[in-house]
Write a structure and sequence with these properties.
alpha+beta, three-stranded antiparallel β-sheet, 369 residues, 2 domains, four-stranded antiparallel β-sheet
């Protein structure tokens, strides 16, 4: 228990060290802060689905003050590494606020950080709204998605560390939160790993499968909180997870797997090169693409639907009045939120199940005929 308390304290200290609560004002009128037109709603939803350099909780429409948490900005410019907190941009995303670090001028435009040219005093755009006097920097910042992944990793480390310590001490019955984890670990082992990979080889891949399952599940659940996480809705994240799976089953593939893939037995020799190309494309492109796209599309669609239903209180206000439109929005959004809780688990299960299936296909021993 003492170890658990110390771990929780360390986690809280880490979160506070990376973030700082900020309140900053912009020269906006009340009307500019309100989001009440279909175009503004679509832009707001699109902004929510993207990654960002800070947590924006809410805006006081009367004062124009934005409240949220800033995150560390770490960028590589022409003058080397620059670090500061994202609050320096004052919640600006239109390139109007210039952050000066030594002789380097930085602006944030559409969630991307640019370095202005030496003599530039503002960001200039062409007809296509592309910067003409600035260039992208190499961004190593702790964005909202990066913070979510680090936070999830720490949660998993603390939770499974406690479970491992209990087993190491010879405890047959877990205590505390470990009682919740153990049935899930057994479920992944008995319902996913063993049936798809086989009794002899499943242990080798249990670490990866457990990590992927809980990593995706926790991130999906964080996405249902008011903090606006959409980590598994970032295609770069799902692509990395899919690439990990691809590398594992390609590296772990047996001689039988490569023999059947590159020179398939039982078919005419003239067709074997064609089938080899098809099989390679399937294992290298199609299977990873199906993994990354399924997770990305389902999570993104869920966030989009929930926010669209919440927006009904604004879009239907003129037709049904504030009470009816707000009631409809609340009921429908809550209904979809309960479904999204199921989807959060289901998408973690599907990704882990398909990963184990692909690995099982690669490590399967074929009988000689």
């Amino acid at each position: 228990m003492m170890v658990a308390k110390k771990s929780i304290k360390l986690l809280v200290v880490f979160v506070l060290a990376l973030t700082s609560f900020t309140a900053f004002a912009q020269d906006d009128t009340v009307e500019n802060n309100l989001i009440d037109s279909p175009e503004e709603i679509r832009a707001y939803i699109a902004h929510h689905l993207k990654d960002s350099h800070d947590f924006h909780l809410y805006t006081n429409n009367k004062t124009g003050v934005h409240y949220g948490f800033s995150l560390p900005v770490i960028v590589w410019t022409n003058d080397g590494l620059k670090t500061f907190m994202s609050s320096a941009f004052q919640h600006d995303d239109n390139g109007t606020v210039i952050v000066e670090k030594d002789e380097t001028k930085l602006v944030k435009y559409h969630s991307k950080i640019y370095e202005l040219e030496n003599n530039a005093t503002s960001l200039n755009l062409d007809e296509a709204a592309h910067p003409t006097n600035a260039k992208r920097v190499i961004d190593f910042s702790i964005t909202k998605s990066v913070f979510g992944m680090i936070f999830t990793g720490l949660i998993m480390l603390l939770a499974f560390g406690g479970l491992a310590r209990g087993y190491k001490k010879g405890k047959t019955i877990p205590k505390g939160f470990s009682r919740v984890l153990e049935p899930l670990v057994i479920y992944v082992r008995d319902e996913i790993a063993r049936p798809n990979i086989g009794e002899k080889k499943y242990r080798k891949f249990m670490g990866f499968l457990l990590t992927v399952f809980f990593f995706i599940w926790i991130l999906n659940m964080l996405g249902l909180t008011p903090f606006g996480f959409n980590v598994t809705g970032q295609i770069a994240v799902t692509a990395c997870l899919a690439i990990f799976t691809m590398v594992i089953y390609l590296v772990s593939g047996t001689k039988d797997f490569w023999a059947h893939t590159l020179w398939m037995p039982g078919v005419p020799y003239i067709l074997r090169p064609i089938l080899a190309v098809i099989e390679l494309v399937g294992f290298i492109l199609i299977k990873p693409f199906s993994l990354l796209l399924r997770l990305f599309a389902n999570i993104t669609a869920g966030h989009f639907i929930v926010m669209s239903l919440i927006a009904l209180m604004v879009t239907l206000k003129a037709s049904f009045g504030p009470v009816v439109s707000t009631g409809m929005s609340l009921v429908l959004a809550l209904f979809i939120m309960f479904i999204e809780i199921l989807v959060a688990f289901l998408q973690a299960f599907i990704f882990t199940m398909l990963s184990s299936l692909f690995i099982g296909m690669a490590v399967e021993e074929h009988d000689e005929h």
